[in-house]
Amino acid sequence: MTEGFRPSHPKISIDDDPGIRRQIESLTGDLSQQQLAKWALIIAKKAMHYVDDNQQYDRRLRLAIDANELWQVNLVNVDQVRQASAKVEAMSADSTSSIGAAALECVSWAIASAYVDDNALRAADQAIKLVNLTQPNDAAAVTAEREWQYQQLADLVQNINLGLRHML
Question: Using an 8 Å Cβ cutoff, are 113 and 71 in contact?
Answer without folding.
Answer: no
